[in-house]
Amino acid sequence: MSTRIHVIAIGALAVAFGGGLEERAEAGRGQRVVVGVLTDEEHRVTPEMERESREKAGSPAPAFRAVDQDGEPVDSEAMVGDRPVLLVFIKDGCPCSTSAEPFYARLHDSYGDAARFFGVIDGDRSVAARWVSDHGTPYPVLADPELEIVRAFGVSNSAYVALISPGGTIEALWPGYSEGILRDISARLAGLTGRPEAEVGASEAPELPYSGCPFEFDPPEPADPPS
């Protein structure tokens, strides 16, 4: 059985899923990372998550407005134009979001001048700013404290990724990340941008698809009792 690993940026909280840890240099980015064996089955992507994500493909991307970590407004209608958009859904404090982030940063390194990248985090602007500072995220992170964007895209957990094609259609929604998912994202970005497909170190990702921690949605308001 091949080893499944998470790549976690050093300086982040090391929440152990089990297994040993070792350090190595990340090629091409000049960072130190921690590699840990992942044994937590709770975060495995389920068939239902895969099915619901596939059903989103081809539908219009939801419209939204938000501010990024610097307070700059982002309007989705203006954001989507002649370039594809990749949205990375982040849960503050989730180790899965932390471990997945370096892969999305590598995708940005390869395609960021031909596609737009945004994170979407479950917090206000200060939370978004702290995430960018702590992780060195090279793309804007949008504040979504009420989970409005998360709900609009039908996202249940962190580490989901949405790719929006030029013109505003959901090209694909992935319910987590893995070696295969990262290769698929890179191939689709290459096709939409006309770039050669980039190598983003996908072989370092888990072999099987893993999602992140569930977002904490407010329970529905109780219905008024009949009069």
From TrEMBL:
The text of the family note is:
Belongs to the peroxiredoxin family. BCP/PrxQ subfamily.
- Disulfide bond in keyword set: yes
Q: Which UniProt keywords apply?
A: Antioxidant, Disulfide bond, Oxidoreductase, Peroxidase, Redox-active center
Domain of life, per the record?
Bacteria
What does it do?
Thiol-specific peroxidase that catalyzes the reduction of hydrogen peroxide and organic hydroperoxides to water and alcohols, respectively. Plays a role in cell protection against oxidative stress by detoxifying peroxides and as sensor of hydrogen peroxide-mediated signaling events.
The catalytic activity of this protein is classed by the Enzyme Commission as 1.11.1.24
What InterPro entries is this protein classified in?
A: AhpC/TSA, Peroxiredoxin_BCP/PrxQ, Thioredoxin-like_sf, Thioredoxin_domain
Q: Which PROSITE patterns match?
A: THIOREDOXIN_2
| Segments of skewed composition (Basic and acidic residues) | 45-57
Spell out the protein name for this chain: thioredoxin-dependent peroxiredoxin
